[in-house]
Amino acid sequence: MAQYEKMTFSREKLYEEIWSISTSGVSKKYNIPYSKLKKACIEANIPTPSNSYWTNISMGREVSKEPLPSSDMTEVIIQYGVKDKEVPPPAVNVTKIIEDAVDQSHDLQKIELKIQPQHTYVEGQRNIYDRNVLYNEVWNEPVTTVAKRYGVSDVAIHKICKSLSIPVPPRGYWAMKNASQPVKQIPLPEYDGPTQKTGSKSFDDSEEKSESDDVLSFLSEDERIRLTIAAQQITILDDKYKLHLKLNSHKAKIKAWRASHARDEFAPRNRDTYRRVPDGEPFLYNDISDSTFPRVYRILNTLFQYVEAQGGSVNDDLSLMIRNEKVYYSITEGQDQVPHVLTKDEQKQWDQYERDKKSRSWAYEPKFRKWDYIPNGKLRFSVKANSYFRDSETIGLELRLGEILIALFEQSENVRIEREKREEAQRKAEEEKRQREIEREYYNQEVEKVIALENEAKDYDLACKIRAYISAVESKGYNDETTLQWIEWAKAKADWYDPTVAASDPDFGKRNHTLDEEKKRPSKKSGYSFW
Question: Which end of the chain has the smaller Cβ count within 10 Å, N or C?
Fold first, then answer.
């Protein structure tokens, strides 16, 4: 807790000390904030030395001391806040917070089993709404919860409350209440109309409950309980807690990038096809103003602690690993569009143009943008496509961290489903490619086998023709030795051609019957022999 201290100086003494050891020297000597000391000097009309005064003294030059003006004030009183010297708090142990809350939740569940909430009588498929009872219900539980119990939509409950003049909690009421923020219950106003109303059920409340329970059905029971408790317990961590290592690293990246990449704070941030993200630009640099970064870091620091307590981790690019899935999100800051105010340089260009056009008809008119876009500090946190959480007039993102935490885990399931779809599609594509390759190889093998069969059949046909020719020669009755030798030689060649015999030839060896004729036909040798 901050305390205040007050120091009183003689006006002349303070003047002499400032001109002897400098304003900053006096500030350090008495441990007074420099800004407070400077303001006190201005109010007491005490002149202070310029920077050049001390430079000239260090260089041995002559300097003149500005005299102390006369004043009715004789004393200068400086009051300033002093922070208590506190021992730095230990690092927040989110895991222990959740474990303690889980232990307590089991006891609460036992109590809730014995005490059922009071609700209006339900007769068959029709509800009877009592004004006083319904008023207590909508202020003790969210309207969506009350609606499920009646078996109707939350829109129907709002309509019934309006018809019975029952006020309902405003937007953000339950988030603020869960975060222990002060909330105000609107009293039930006087009303002369009927106090009861009947209406039909639109669905079975037990079925609707089961559908609601399916929101986190992808988690085990223990994981679901822990995550639900964490979402209920999460509260923003202030600046006294140590910043996450990944955020410290990100701050350094932002600082380094800013040093070499000037940014127009008042330019629109929307990027289209022609304004892509430069290579190496850190996450959030284009989306968040410098003054809003501390708030964004507090939000992310809190979420990171709770994600890690659930077994997740943070990547270098500040994306999250949740249930072994990479989850991306975006944070953007809103901008207000206001008419552009010319800068000093732009005003000089315009003034020059005004002068030039009086003497030269071809003077070039400078073009400046019509609008400035001022960062307004309102944040929007997007987890899923076409879905986001944003600051409203009554509630900020800090009070919706539980919803964001749940959304991040839901997105991890969406990412898993999409990843498995891609992997399955890739597996199918690879399997189809493999099958096509098998079919291609099989087809080519069949082609080769058919060609081989054709070649073998041609060899067999040739062998049959040779044997028929031999038979014709034998039928002529030639019995001379030369003819008989030729017949034996021709029969051997027929056996060499015949794939069913596949005899080896002493000159040509084994014939490969499967090859085409050009490759297996004997060819003459070329070249010269020297004896």
Answer: C
